[in-house]
Amino acid sequence: MESESPSIDPRYRPEFQRGYRGSAASIPAASMPVVDDSAKVGMPPAATVAVESVVESVIAVDPRLVEPEVAEPEQTERRRNPYALVIPVVALGFVILGTWLLVSQFVWSYSGAFGSDNSVERRFSGVLSYVFAAPLVTVGLGSLVGYGFWLAVRRRQRP
Residue 63: left (phi > 0), alpha (psi -120 to 50), or beta? Predict the structure, then answer.
């Protein structure tokens, strides 16, 4: 059976391995590239005077007098949402159609316009009124309220 203590893998740095117990002095220093002194012979001296004069000229200018060099943002034309007009028109149409179905059913049922109570037209109009009128009004009003909230949130987010 192998020993209980883990061994150090030589492929990886030992200080990052489990079971390593060493001091900071035993960690090998990272290899730094060595610059040959013969390569420095052809290099010109550093231009510290030019840099210092540029820094002094920049510092000498009053920062309150300098305008920021920020480009003006382009004014982009906001596209209008095509549904912004369609949604309230359709919702208002639903409310009007549902209200018309309800009112017309009451008027026709009490005016005797269909003749007998067992006529097909009377039963058909009653079914239309009871099935479609209330949902049309409800969906229309709900859409108008939702559209109003959407407009309020959208205008609040705009700067």
Answer: alpha
